[in-house]
Design brief:
- The chain is an alpha+beta fold.
- The chain has one domain: Orthogonal Bundle (Cytochrome p450).
- It has 19 helices and nine strands.
- The strands form three sheets. A four-stranded mixed sheet has the order 1-2-7-4. Strands 3-9-8 form a three-stranded antiparallel sheet. It has a two-stranded antiparallel sheet with strand order 5-6.
- The protein is globular.
- The N and C termini lie far apart (49 Å).
């Protein structure tokens, strides 16, 4: 019966919403991914990276196209596959502002529409200045080191096999709590009810039928899930009120000092920072540790660099910098390239008729930068599916865009790189690790299905040995 699920669901969804899948006349001149393979991919809950490799990358590699039209979350959207076209899009904030989030999507009901991710013009400039200043007050390396020691305590003194992507999420949640929110989620100490409820909500949102046709949220509303989302939002609001009553030295307290930030802006940015600050970090840390596990010679070389640069000294912002640990930094860059934590970015909307490369883009078109595709284009990257940190010595960073491009690239990129270098360096000094026998990741990394273009390894068990 299970083998009949997706064909039956495909037929039902198509009959209910077939008008949605008609390509607008203004976009029919663009190359596009056929709708039925896309629907099959979504309904079978295929991970984002697998869908891009199978259906989108051939347009870049075999057909040398710079854009392709894809059905995404209820509408046709132009995926940018070429780095130069992506930069042209990202640099022009007036012609290509962020798209207003769709009303039907429960994901955006949770995130809100007044945060730095989707705001434009004056509102975005205000939030961007404030959040950049808050993040760059100081690099919280001491907190990262303390949390790394907590991870070591859990791994112990012998040999242990753990589900690593869960450890990575717990580490990322506590890092976010201590540095951004000034709140201890205690995710590494115990099963966090807050995190468990968040994971449950995100799993509910990820129903593939509703992702294909968000209009179903109005036709067949999911009242129970909506109530869970509202309850989770209330918990974020409670954290915000507690921070207003008792401010500290964290980033959220800094943002609260600005009288121009409304309560809705503060709430929406708080939720956004939680989602983007720990889901992407968890994916990045899981991927990095996977590739170090499957490439023992690279893991050994990174460990030797730690020994030569840091030795047994305490970790500091200076000895954990990219310049101090160039090979470890290259390992992180390569893991961010090959299994990018976010496959594609929040879309832009063309405000007028425009020209992107050789492609005519009509006004009102949804466009997104497909980071995964850019990172796996064969004309740019030699052997793009091979993990090779040394490529950054020769292939450079011009086409490396894990944090997006232009003025609106991720403001926390330096924060994220320090977070990864700290945990990796701390564990490299005291442990070596490998995939356990029979791992489903032996031949290649296997990611989870995600409603938010996230790329996170699924059920990644690693075996750690104390040195």
């Amino acid at each position: 019966m299970a083998s009949l699920y997706w064909p039956l669901a495909l037929v039902v969804v198509f009959l209910l919403t077939r008008r949605l899948f008609v390509v607008p006349a203004s976009l029919r001149h663009l190359p596009r991914v056929p709708i039925f393979p896309l629907l099959k991919s979504y309904l079978s809950m295929e991970p984002e990276d697998a869908r891009i490799r199978k259906l989108i990358l051939p347009f870049a590699n075999e057909r040398q196209e710079g854009v392709v039209l894809v059905w995404v979350l209820g509408r046709w959207m132009v995926h940018i596959l070429d780095q130069q076209i992506a930069r042209q899009l990202c640099d022009d904030l007036a012609l290509y502002p962020k798209e207003k989030p769709p009303n039907d999507s429960l994901l955006w009901h949770l995130i809100g529409n007044s945060n730095i991710l989707v705001s434009n013009a004056t509102q975005w400039k205000k939030q961007s200045r404030l959040i950049n200043d808050a993040i760059n007050l100081q690099m919280p390396v001491e907190q990262f080191v303390a949390l790394t020691n907590n991870v070591k305590a859990l791994l112990g003194q012998g040999t242990i096999t753990v589900r690593w992507e869960e450890f990575a999420q717990r580490f990322a949640v506590d890092a976010l709590g201590s540095t951004v929110f000034g709140h201890d989620f205690e995710a590494l100490k115990q099963q966090s009810m807050f995190v468990r409820e968040y994971n449950g909500v995100m799993s509910g949102i990820a129903n593939p039928v509703y992702l294909i046709a968000p209009v179903l949220e109005r036709l067949v509303p999911r009242t129970t899930l909506l109530n869970r989302i509202d309850t989770l939002i209330e918990q974020f609001v409670a954290l915000l009120k507690a921070k207003q009553n008792s401010p500290g030295d964290d980033m959220m307290s800094y943002m609260l000092r600005d009288p121009d930030m409304s309560q809705k802006e503060l709430r929406d940015n708080m939720i956004l920072l939680f989602i983007s600050g720990h889901d992407t970090s968890a994916g990045a840390l899981s991927t990095l540790f996977y590739f170090l596990a499957t490439h023992p010679e690279i893991q050994r070389r990174a460990r030797e660099e730690i020994a030569a640069v840091v030795g047994k000294a305490d970790f500091t912002a200076e000895n954990l910098s990219a310049n101090s640990l160039p090979f470890l930094n290259a390992c992180i860059r390569e893991s961010l390239r090959i299994n990018t934590p976010i496959s594609y970015v929040v879309p832009r909307m063309s405000s007028a008729d425009a020209q992107l490369g050789k492609y005519t883009i009509p006004a009102g078109t949804s466009l997104t930068v497909d980071i995964y595709a850019i990172h796996h284009t064969e004309a740019v990257w030699k052997d793009p599916h091979v993990y090779r940190p040394e490529r950054f010595d020769t292939e450079g960073l011009k086409n490396w865009v894990p944090f997006a491009l232009g003025p609106r690239q991720c403001p926390a990129r330096n924060f994220a790189m320090y977070e990864q270098r700290t945990l990796a360096a701390g564990l490299l000094r005291d442990y070596e690790w490998e995939l356990p026998a029979g791992s489903k990741h032996c031949n290649s990394i296997q990611n989870a299905f995600s409603p938010f273009a996230l790329t996170v390894p699924h059920k990644l068990h690693l075996t750690f040995h104390k040195l």
